[in-house]
Amino acid sequence: MTRTSTRAETRRPVGVRPPAPGPALTPTTVTATAGTPLPADRRTGSATADTAPVQVGAFLLSAQFPGQTHGEALDRTVRAAVAAEQAGLDSVWLAEHHFVPYGVCPNAATLAALLLGRTRRIGIGTAVSVLSTTHPVALGEQAALLHLTSDGRFTLGVGRGGPWIDLEVFGGGVDAFERGFPERLDLLLRWLRGTRVGAAGPQFTFPEVAVVPRATEPPRQPDLGAWLGLDERTGTLRFPRQRQDADGSAEELTATGRPVAGPPMVVACTSPNGVRTAAERGLPMLLGMHSGDEDKLHMLELYRSAWLAAGRGEEQLRRITRQHVAAGVAQVDDRASTARATLLGAMPGWFEFGLGAHRTVDGRERKMRDPREYTELLCDLHAVGTPRQCADRLLATAERTGIRRFALLAEGSGDREATLHNIARIGSEVLPQLG
Fold this sequence. Notes:
By secondary structure, this protein is an alpha/beta fold. Helix content is about 40%, strand content about 15%. The strands form two sheets. Strands 1-2-3-5-8-9-10-12 form an eight-stranded parallel beta barrel, surrounded by eight helices. It has a two-stranded antiparallel ribbon with strand order 6-7. Helix 3 runs parallel beside helix 4 and helix 12 (about 335-355) packs across helix 13.
């Protein structure tokens, strides 16, 4: 029987967002062992790690395993998201891909809209929406819409994607992937934080237009009187409803004078340049499944350096560290050997079937990891085993790195019912051991 955790009843998740794992262009050296916890004074940005709660979400790629239809893969994702809420998980993270069976969801924000309607408490995030193949304003409109109509349960995760044929199909070209991400991200941020936006850059040039809907408005449904501009006490008209500065860049303020936030965001970071891009803009990172604890620590050190170089302080850094998200894998069983065998029996075929279908945009050479070796690596790095072993693995990473948010691939078996059972066990047997 699935247990609904009190975590879901008492705390609204901060959901965000990891990059969907894709085929590697070059081999990556990772550390497969957990190591021992670092002393508190050596943990990057983890001064509050002993008190901040560990948050666990389900990472769903809509993976099409061999022999499955597209509809079966998507049905598993929808059912798994509902099961994640019932199990008390904090969030669901959705990936998007084009033209490959590795993942058959082409638009994570669209699927997020469906799942926000099917759920009531859990956070739904994109992991990630690919900016290299999407107009930032179009994505900003979607994000604002989901933020305002879901009571703030939506998190927008963005990344630059890969050098795939998608770039040619959607018109961005290889330049959008190799050099265009910062401009695209900045345009998206201006849209989500402003009231009027124009552009005069290499990739986007358009006259100033009004931001509608405004993501910075409170994420709630106004009553009819407020929508019509009626004073709540007298019923008289009180226009204008929104304060407007002369330059059109006013922000709605809370009672304490702080700007009203739009949807939470995360940036997929797989390289030093990506880390600097996120840190310079004050956005948390989404770290990939291939990263071990040593790799995470390295990325956190790069982030810290870029953060401080941008003139931000240590206290702000401690707060942002709580918002980083680490992608991983979770497979729970009564025996560790059985959990591992489940993934080794299904994931290599999926990797070979799905990742092997990727085509580069310009014919560049692509090196794909050995599917079985990659699966074994993921089993070594992540929460695969008994409930106690899974909890210990998550707590060890949180203690060592200070990262407290996890997006765990729960569909590694490839089977719908097994995925739902796995999620239920994460909620009922792993979450209670995380404190």
